[in-house]
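#struct-help
A.M.: can someone run this one for me? Single chain, 127 residues.
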Amino acid sequence: QVQLVESGGGLVQAGGSLRLSCATSARTFSTYAMGWFRQAPGKEREFVAAISWSGGIANCAESVKGRFTISRDNAKNTVYLQMNSLKPEDTAVYYCAASLRDYSRSSMVERNAYDYWGQGTQVTVSS
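D.P.: on it. Structure tokens below:
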């Protein structure tokens, strides 16, 4: 069982920045593709960003492109989500997830591509 622990959420004003982290003790972390999803109250959980096991391939949802960046440090077993120019509509619980699948842009946007999920961290953006 792989445990994922998110941190870095909080309250920020519109236009501000936050960096989310997702850490795991899994020794096989470097073999997983990783993703970030978010869920706002009353809405479906939606894809935010994903990154391949090596960090060489990444993609983001159109709604966050140019503002959010996903990265990973396999030496630290951690994946990050740098969020800049935050908007009130970015308010949600953010979840990281790990996938055993080979990375592909089409599959990594789907929740069922992921095998493990963290508990989530709240991000609130005030206007």
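A.M.: thanks! The mean pLDDT is 95.
D.P.: also worth noting: Residues 37 and 48 are 5 Å apart (CA to CA).
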